[in-house]
Each structure stands twice: as structure tokens, then as C-alpha cells.
Amino acid sequence: MYSRFYGFSEKPFDITPDPRFLYLSLSHREVLASLIYGIKEKRGFIAVLGEAGTGKTTLLRSALDHLKEDVKVAHIFNTDVTFPEMLQMVLADLGLATRKEPLTKVDALHRLNGFALQQLSSGGNVVIMVDEAQNLDRNCLENLRLLSNLETRRHKLIQIVLSGQPELEEKLRRPDLRQLSQRINLRRYIMPLSPRETHEYIEQRLKVVGYRGPTLYTKRAENLLWQASGGIPRIINTLCDNALLIAFALKEKRIQEKTMKEAIDDLTRDRFRRESQPPASVLPPVAALPGSGSNRRVAGLLVLLLLVSLVGLIVESGFGIVGTHSKAKDSPSFKNVVRAVISDAPSGSAESQPQPPAEAPGIAALQNKRETDPFSVSQPASVFSYIPIEPPPAEEAEQAETGGNAATEEHAQWVSVTEGDSLHRIIIRYYGSYNKLLEQKVLTANPSITNPDRIFVRQLIKIPDPTEPGT
Questions:
Q1: Which CATH class, in words, describes the domain spanning 363-463?
Q2: CA 427 to CA 239: how far, in whole Å?
């Protein structure tokens, strides 16, 4: 629709995994090189890990383009299958059977082993690539491990690539899958893009479709895009495509910040839910609320807040309550407080849940760090949980400006926890690997974390300098 208006030969931000549009960041280059090396050198199991939308499938397809014709590849996309069904799909991809041919598991394994030996004798190779491997159950993963037992004294007959989201690594850490985890010879991670890489990613895709005009996205629009996407290429594509559509409707030749904000709002705002909520004036009276435990607590909070509001009004009216006027003046209005309580009230009868800290790191500090460190993981909330990023507390801002009191804190990083994060994932994304020493180092730098399995969205976590002794 908008391609002719902007002079594109085709749409630049489709979400299909087309290797022509592959942008190789630092981590993408490392993963691609490891894939090619592991397959050519017959290293057995290779694991590629990354968040959804970081380009794992595109990298797998790109790796296929770098392999010789004597490398026979079976690419499994649908992992919601049993192992016999997966084995049938592998044989069909390799041309050894039809998808409906009745084969027992023994017959299928015998046929695959014979083909692998034949390939080895002729200098070839056999590769099984499993995409979305985090969906595989324990039985499938264990059978893949047994499949890797097809080998000679010197070589693995079959190379197996497991590509998946961080949930795959969590599965591999389970004690009952430790044998499989030990057999993974190469384990590589795809990291989200930094602000600089996000700019290069956009420019590279525009170049592929033949765009020759001025810079299409303004700097402010790109900054807002990075904040909302968290550096995830798939989300970047979705937002860029929506922004282009909006700008085309307005006949604008460049994507401004306001256009990008509108694209983000269109994907994150729940218009129907918000419009269907009754205004505060028609909320049911407190006495009419049902008597469940959670609703009784809400009613109590509303009564308490009403009393606090009345006291504030008295103070505002000058009734002379000494020392409280300035505090009452800065308190939120009763209307806003009621809305906050209603929207955040628990739906069950469980006890009140602890709330995460409200602070988040300043985006300028995050951008500066990401510019110099592509492996930095201070990602803002993704587009599917987008929230405005607030400035850090005064003491943290002062520390960020002065570089800390000690030399070892000069390059420390403040990370804002996003939805779905765990301390384990944060350590992997920042340092590239995980071990107990790294976890202890992070816990030592954050004495407020008493339980590493309990962190909150938007909680501020200090990541020590990776070059500091002990990390």
C-alpha cells in the first residue's frame, strides 16, 4: 500500500524470516559462525537460545545457505508432536520416506542410521534442525539425545541443532535432562539490539528494498521505537510497519516521534476495556459490594481513603492542622486514588501481594550504555507491556553521573526488570553465561534481593562490571 509512496520495491518490515533482510549484530554473527562451524566439524548437539522475535529462525535459514550441497538437512518447525511423528517428518525431509508411510520406530531409526553412514562415506553430513525446541516435552528431548548415539569412533553421524527461547535452557537445567545438557557442545545466545544496532537494522532493511531518500525515521522516533520494542527485531518490524502506514495516511515523508507514539499506542492501548469501565461517579456503593474477602478489603480501603481525602480537604480549607498542609496539598486526588485501587484490587481471596518498586532507570543512561556494550541487557518494557519510563531516584542519578564512589563501580549497570524476567535470565543476557559466582556477585551488589527467585517488574538491579575480579 505505501511502498510506491516511499519508493520501496517491496515492504521492508515484513515479519517473515527472509535471509535477504538478515542483519548481523555482534551476537548474530557469533551465533551464525558457531552454527556453520558446529555443523561442518560434526560437533553433535548445538543450542541456539534467544527471546521470541530475535531472529533465530532467520539465522537457521541463513546458515543453510552457507552449507555445501552434500549436507542434508531436515528442518522441524512444528514441535507439538510425538517423537515417532518427528522421526517421520525427518525421514520425509531427507527423502527417505513419505509422511504417511507406516514405519515402526525401529525401522525408522534403522533407515536413518543407514542413510547417515552412506553420507559419511561420501564426505557428506546429516543435520536435524529443531525450531521452537522449548515446546518439546521430556520424552522428545530424551529421544533426541539417544538419536545422537548414532556415531562412529571418530564422528557424530547426525548433527542436531536445538533452537528455542529461554524456556529451553530452563528445561535443560532440570536434573532429569542433565545427560542431554552435558552433550551440548556449543551453546550460543542471541541478544536484543542496542539503540545503535536498531538504527543500523532499520537502514539495512530500507536499503534492501531500494530506498534512496533522506533518513526516514527521525532520531526521536528511533529512540522511542527502541524503548517500546526492547531491541527485539520482530517488534521493531511491527512498529515500523504500523508507523509507515500511519504516515502514509497523513502523506508524511518522514516518520516523526508523534507518529511512532501513535503506532505504539495502537498496539498497546486496550481501548475497549477502558471505554467499558464505568466512571467513578457510577461505581456501586461500598455497602453493596459482595462479601468476599478481597472485596471487603477493597471496601475498607475505599473508606480509609475517603477519610484521608476528607482530612486533606479540611487542611486545604485552612482549618489550621499544623504541619500537614504541604503533605495534603501534594496528595493525589480521591478520584485518582479510587481508580488506582479499583484497577489494582486482587480478584481472589489471597493475601495482599508485595508490590515492586516504582523506580526505573533513566532511558538516556540506558541508551549510552547500550551504545558501547551490545551485550547490555537494560531493556525497557516491551511493546506488549509498554509503560512510560521514569527517571531514577536522585541518589541513583547522582551515582550514575559521578560513576560511583569506587573504581569497580565505574562501569556498573542498572537494569530495570521487565515482564517475564528472572535473575537467571538477566545474568545470562548481560554476561553471556550463568554460574553461581556471577549470581552471588549480583546478589552482593543488591543486598535488597533476599530471594533470587523473587524479583519484580521495574525493580532496579545493579549489575557489577564484568571485568571486576570475581565476575
A1: alpha beta
A2: 28
Residue that is written with C-alpha cell 519508493 in the block: 7
Please, what sign has the CA dihedral across residues 329, 333, 334, 339?
Answer: negative
Angstrom distance (rounded) from CA 463 to CA 380: 16
Q: How far is CA 298 from the centre of its chain?
A: 34
Distance CA 317, CA 304 (A): 20
Please give the CATH topology (third level) of the domain spanning 26-190: Rossmann fold (3.40.50)
* pLDDT value for 401: 40
Give me the residue label for grid cell 516435552.
Answer: 137
Q: In the block, which residue shows the cell 487542611?
A: 315
Pick from 128, 143, 133: nearest CA to 50? 133
Q: What is the CATH number of domain 3-11+194-269?
A: 1.10.8.60
Q: Which helix (H) or strand (E) holds 166?
A: helix 166-172
Taking each helix axis as running N to C, give the angle between helix 83-93 and helix 138-147, from 0 to 180 degrees, rounded to the nearest 10: 50
Burial, 127: exposed, middle or buried (Cβ in 10 Å; 0-12, 13-18, 19+)?
buried
pLDDT tens for 107-155 read 999 999 999 999 988 888 999 999 999 999 999 999 999 988 888 778 8
Specify the residue for cell string 527517571.
391
Phi/psi at 286 (5° precision): -60, -40
**Per-domain boundaries in the chain:** 3-11+194-269, 26-190, 293-344, 363-463
DSSP state for residue 466 in the 8-state scheme: T
Q: What's the CA gap between 246 and 238, in Å, rounded? A: 13
What distances in angstroms separate CA 190 from CA 46, 166, 344, one per listed residue? Answer: 14, 10, 35
* CA end-to-end distance (rounded Å), the chain: 52
Q: What is the dihedral of CA 324, 326, 332, 337, to 10 degrees?
A: -10
Say if CB 157 and CB 126 are below 8 A apart.
Answer: yes
Q: Report, in this order, helix, strand and coil percent for the chain, each rounded to 5.
A: 50, 10, 40
Low-confidence ranges of the chain (pLDDT < 70): 270-411, 466-471
Task: Give the Cα separation of 458 and 344 in Å (integer).
Answer: 16
Q: Is the CB of residue 126 less than 8 Å from the CB of residue 145?
A: no
